[in-house]
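Quick note —
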Amino acid sequence: MAETTLVEAEQDGAMCVRPLVLNHVEMIYRRGETEHAQAFFETLGFTVTQWEAWLFVNVSPDGNGIDNVMYANQPTPAQQNFNDAFDQAVANDPRLAETLARQHAVAREWPYYNFHFGASIPTHEDWQERVERLQDASKNHPLLKGRIEVVVKEPTTPRALTAQSQCFVFTDILAAGGPFAQGLQFELQWTPTPPSGVINSETVAAIGPGNPFPDMSTLA
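Predicted structure written out below.
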């Protein structure tokens, strides 16, 4: 049988046309903390499978395993060397330690301005269940206790900027390539349907609580 060419496959309808989507994000977990990272993603409410050193995290339970996913793997030796050098610098430099602590404080007070990943949860009940599971894990989970922080912003929460229910989760188990001491932030959000029935950035802002944006000079 003659080999089927790419053009022939396309003509036969066998070629899969993939949509233009945000496909995946990739991060690293601390050396020796594969189980911690898996427990974190599962507590967020996602399905996790493992291949070699990689964790494959399906955001949607009916996903194809390729799109709408997150990956996490162990740091390369170069990344680990950088992290070790940063930790040593923080231990020896009070000014650096002070600025790191201040960055943490600002991120938790105003999580909107900190680098993070966000996932949309279908119902408020589902969102609430995940929030409660995370809050409990931060106090009681054998692998996550003391390793995650949870900040909840509802529309009635002071300094909330949208009409969404938002749960910001901070952890030092994972990093996006930077030092683990800086931590990584995730967001779980639920968006109410506005009277128009249309959800987009404009309608979410329009029905938001209307709190003022911060003076950026105060966030130094």
